[in-house]
Design brief:
heterodimer; A: about 450 residues; mainly beta; 2 domains; 8-stranded antiparallel beta barrel; about 5% helix; globular; B: alpha+beta
């Protein structure tokens, strides 16, 4: 059931992303009317000779006609510009100092390194956790707000959904769909990656009603990646009908939640423009990465004893899969700009039923080589995954670019490591308790909402 | 319901707030879309539905979407300074690195140039301070016509493409009121003129042919 929900949510998010051209792009059109030929000519119509009873002297009945001939065609020029200040898929913040001792959630650095053993619905917190809570936003957008006589760098924004989680006590979680956010950016650096101080006022209205006042220092974006340090105060109320309260132990009354916070955050596929960039056409836009994508999925044959994808099937060609979410391969401006540093929000390398590893924010170093311009490229890489599994992954992906949003390819590689840390029972029940693994694999891959950039699109190559 | 209200509020804020854009003749078929090209938006003051004041340093573009065979009609009153400059057969994007025809309407006289190549200078037609004049710019195929009141400043051909835009800026230290701003399709205007001539002729007793 949970897999289905994730799948449906993924499809919806993908659809929204691929159909959100109107919130992303401003189109301007100029018409040039080209007059190929514009002539006026006169011609004479003579009467046919014949008997005319008009006397001896009579005026000529000849007539002159004047005609204009105009051949025109329209040449229509369309220009497309980015029309947002910020558009992001996922933002996560690890909060410090929000939990009351024993109810700290333990979300880890940036809020994305939780203790996987505690990922269960009945978890009510623990002591000794530095990152006691988290802020999570999905589908973030900001647009230019031109008020106060067009004062610079104001934005109005929202997100599809936002969670402010101070602790593991669910009744204190503040959440809202499409909260309204006002932000003002003071840029300390106006070159990529931008650095800005950002005071923010946010208002959430359903299912929690709250105000979130914060300030942050933002660094990014670079390949859709941003780092943020937050300080703020959130205050709001959850009625007893709110889902957080109904899921908690104290579901008979409404709850007020007030908490100051400090936090460190990261966001993925989160693109920030300064105002001048909104006047630069998309085709002239600067890019820092070889590849940015929402999903890369591969079906692999690793020769494992038991398959994770076809457990009941007799033919077990494919024994596992590789699934990467929110990838970025940021070009390094050295050695012809072909080396890249990459990461993902999450990286699942499943070689077999119980031979698998998970990596949050892995380090990836690769080399991007274009084989056929605009179409075929290869990217050998070495990847170190350190949490919650600990494994090294060396591989190569050959990409055939189908469009801006889709590419297919072949993958081959070798992964070796183990998952020594505890993993929640929800995962282990599905794929079995992990054992150490060391296997080579070969497979096919597909990238969805996964854009490969051409060498000439890199800002270092301009 | 609350979602709808929230979205409406956001939408109003998003789309209602473009201080560099304005519209003229909002209820007319040929609605004019204006864009303030100068960095200081306060140099342009919209005083009525088809009237605006340009202060020193202002630079605007006007266009009716889709209308390139254009009859542009302005009543210009120079409040102070030297005059106005009109650019047409050009586009706003990447101006002035685009081809253009430039018409200077000043107290020294009028001049027309194409891509900075002077075509004509007319000393006898001059802008007068606080005296309204009707300026008409016509793009008709390759023909270009510029008239001030009943005087023709220029009537000739050009190889430049016809575009939707008329760009206007005051000459240095000038301020001007533009009223009666009206854009129309040149074919429609010609038809109307022809019909009015026929009507006049019929009234005078000349048989309509």
């Amino acid at each position: 059931m949970r897999t289905k929900i994730i799948l449906i949510a993924g499809i919806i998010l993908s659809t929204v992303l691929s159909s959100c051209v109107s919130i992303m792009t401003r189109t301007e059109t100029d018409i040039h009317t080209i007059s190929e030929r514009d002539t006026v000519f006169s011609y004479e119509q003579k009467n046919a000779p014949g008997n005319q009873d008009m006397g001896v002297v009579y005026p000529s009945s000849r007539t002159f006609k004047s005609e204009r001939r105009l051949y025109q065609r329209d040449s229509i020029v369309e220009r497309k510009y980015p029309d947002f200040i910020r558009l992001g898929v996922f933002e996560s913040v690890g909060l410090i100092g929000t939990g009351s001792g024993e109810s700290s959630y333990g979300t880890g650095m940036f809020g994305i390194f939780p203790d996987f053993v505690n990922l269960r619905s009945d978890y009510r917190g623990d002591t000794g956790k530095l990152f006691s809570g988290g802020i999570y936003r999905i589908g973030v957008g900001e647009w230019r707000l031109r008020w106060f006589k067009d004062a610079a760098n104001w934005t109005i924004g929202t997100s599809m959904i936002e969670f402010l989680i101070p602790s593991a006590k669910k009744q204190n979680t503040l959440s809202s769909i499409f909260p309204l956010y006002l932000r003002k950016r003071y840029y300390l650096r106006e070159e990529i990656p931008y650095i800005a101080l950002v005071p923010t006022l946010g208002i959430g209205w359903y299912p929690s009603q709250y105000v979130n006042l914060s300030g942050s220092i933002d660094i990014g974006s670079l390949g859709g990646l941003n780092l943020r340090a937050y300080a703020g105060l959130a205050a709001g109320v959850n009625s007893k009908e709110a889902y957080q309260v109904r899921m908690s132990n104290e579901s008979d009354k409404s709850h007020t939640s007030v908490f100051p916070y400090f936090g460190l955050g990261i966001s993925f596929l989160d693109f920030v423009n300064i105002v001048p960039e909104t006047y630069r056409e998309w085709k002239d836009h600067e890019h820092s990465s070889w590849n940015i994508g929402l999903v890369q999925a591969s079906l692999i044959a690793a020769g494992a004893d038991s398959s994770a994808v076809a457990q009941n099937s007799e033919t077990k060609i494919f024994t596992g899969f590789i699934f990467k979410i929110a990838n970025a391969s940021v070009a390094l401006p050295i050695l012809n700009n072909q080396l890249y540093l990459g990461t993902s929000l999450a990286n699942f390398v499943v070689l077999g039923f119980n031979e698998w590893g998970i990596g949050i924010l892995p380090f990836r170093l690769g080399y991007w080589q274009t084989i056929i311009a605009d179409e075929l490229s290869t990217e050998p890489f070495i990847e170190y995954n350190y949490y919650p599994s600990n494994f090294l992954h060396i591989g190569n992906r050959v990409n055939l670019r189908i469009s801006d949003f889709l590419n297919i390819g072949l993958v081959m590689g070798f992964a070796s490591g183990e998952t020594s840390m505890g993993i929640g029972s929800d995962i282990t029940s599905q794929y079995g308790p992990p054992i150490s693994f060391s296997r080579a694999y070969f497979g096919v891959s597909v990238g969805i909402s996964d854009r490969i950039f051409f060498p000439e699109e890199l800002r270092y190559n301009r | 319901m609350r979602i709808v209200i929230n979205f409406l509020i956001i939408s109003f804020i998003f789309f209602g707030c473009h201080p560099d854009r304005f519209s003229l003749n909002k209820r007319d078929d040929n609605r004019i879309e204006g864009f303030i090209m100068s960095p200081d938006f306060e140099k342009v003051e919209i005083t009525a539905d088809n009237e605006l004041v340009l202060y020193e340093g202002a630079f605007i573009s006007l266009r009716t979407l889709g209308l390139t065979q254009l009859f542009a009609d302005f009543t210009v009153t120079l409040i102070n300074g030297e005059g106005l400059t009109f650019y047409f057969r050009t586009v706003q994007n990447n101006f002035p690195n685009q081809p253009f025809i430039k018409f200077d309407y000043t107290t020294q006289g009028c001049s027309v140039s194409e891509n900075d190549r002077q075509i004509i200078t007319v000393d006898s037609i001059k802008a007068k301070i606080k005296e309204p004049s009707r300026i008409r710019i016509i793009n008709d195929g390759k023909l270009v016509t510029i008239t001030v009141d009943c005087d023709t400043v220029y009537y000739g051909k050009t190889q430049l493409n016809a575009t939707e835009y008329v760009l206007i800026k005051p000459v240095e230290e000038s301020r001007a009121l533009l009223s009666g701003i009206f854009f129309n399709d040149v074919i429609t205007v010609n038809e109307e003129i022809r019909e009015s001539i026929i009507y006049e002729s019929t009234r005078k007793g000349i048989k309509q042919r």
